[in-house]
Amino acid sequence: MGSTRKVEQALGRSDVFVVSNPEFLREGSAVSDFLHPDRVVIGSDDQGAAIRVASLYIGVAAPFMVTDPASAETIKYASNAFLATKLSFVNAVAAVCEAVGADVNDVVLGMGYDKRIGHEFLRPGPGWGGSCFPKDVQALLYIAREAGYDFNLLDGVVSVNQEQFERTTDKIIAMAGGSVEDKVIGVWGLSFKANTDDLRESPALQIIDRLLARGAVVRGYDPSVKASLPQTPGLEVVDGAYAACEGAQVLAVLTEWDEFKWVDLDKVAELMAATRIVDARNLLDRSAITRRGFTYQGIGRN
Fold first, then answer.
1. Could you tell me which residues come within 8 angstroms of residue 74 by beta carbon, excluding any fewer than 6 positions away?
2. H helical segments located in 101-202
3. Is 16 exposed, middle or buried (0-12, 13-18, 19+ CB in 10 A)?
4. Distances in whole angstroms, Cα of residue 206 to Cα of each of 99, 209, 300
């Protein structure tokens, strides 16, 4: 039984109709997404109630879909689970690219030109997180289990994501010489994605936790985070990208903030104890970095 049905039962009123109207808003662009949605989904068994909810969207140019409440709820969960699947898939492809000497940036560019696939959500990274994908994936897995269906494919999506956290952590450790014990690791990016201050289920924090557990001293900077994080003891939050580099044996780029593209690499080199970068977002200009003598490693790129 879905949330809509449960609310109806809790209310126990025949004169009140409960309608499912899932949102598809992205953090950092929620207002634009609301005003210019890809679609508006309304789940209701009562036509009059559906029409009243639809009237709230007068002036919004988007396809409208009216369905039953269970289908509306499943559209939401399945949409986010599919996007998480694309991210896990591209991270798995990135691992193959590293093994065979291919460049994942070129691979996904070539894939994306196929209109059946598209370019969206085909960017490799340190793993996916945030407030929506993890809970919606788990919700769909729970729904499937309750219905008696073993959703092995989606279990694999979660497993690949956990492995990506470990793979990225291992890249940083290898770059530090095989151990991060008592070594300073500089980190650019703490939020789960750029243009938001949301730290929930952040891949950056997942990786930082793993580094701290291995004895690293982590110095992190994020434009949206101004104070130390009580849930991550041992992480020193600094007030600038350059401050995160001071004395660092490795610099890890974990969130794709644009400002990191425009830093003075010569100044970064002067501040670091060793000129080594793990770019888990493939954000930086690899040629510019290697020209300055940095050792560089991205995701899915040799």
1. 140, 143
2. 104-112, 133-146, 152-175
3. exposed
4. 24, 5, 20
Query: What type of residue sits at position 70?
Result: A
SS3 41: strand
Q: What's residue 242's pLDDT?
A: 98
Question: Please, what CATH class does the domain formed by 164-297 belong to?
Answer: alpha beta
Across 273-293, average pLDDT? 97
**72-159 fold:** N-(1-d-carboxylethyl)-l-norvaline Dehydrogenase; domain 2 (1.10.1040)
Give the predicted TM-score (pTM) of the model: 0.92
The pLDDT mean for the chain works out to 95
pLDDT tens digits along 156-173? 999 999 999 999 999 999
One-letter amino acid of 15 = D
The structure tokens 């952590």 sit at 169
Q: Identify whether the C-beta of residue 301 lies closer than 8 Å to the C-beta of residue 286.
A: yes
Q: What is the torsion angle, in degrees rounded to the nearest 10, for the CA atoms of residue 299, residue 105, residue 92 and residue 115?
A: 160
Name the helix (H) or strand (E) containing 90: helix 69-100
Is the pLDDT at 1 greater than 80, yes or no? no
Per-residue pLDDT tens digits for 28-51: 888 998 889 999 999 999 999 999
Q: What are the domain boundaries of the chain?
A: 3-67, 72-159, 164-297
Q: Is 132 annotated as catalytic?
A: yes
Catalytic residue among 18, 122, 132, 217: 132
The vertex-263 CA angle with 88 and 269, nearest 5°, equals: 95
Token pair belonging to 208:
């930082």
Give the pLDDT score at 8: 86
Would you call 56 exposed, middle or buried from its count of C-beta atoms within 10 A (0-12, 13-18, 19+)? exposed
Contact between 54 and 124 (Cβ < 8 Å):
no
Say if residue 48 is exposed, middle or buried (CB neighbours under 10 Å; 0-12, 13-18, 19+): exposed
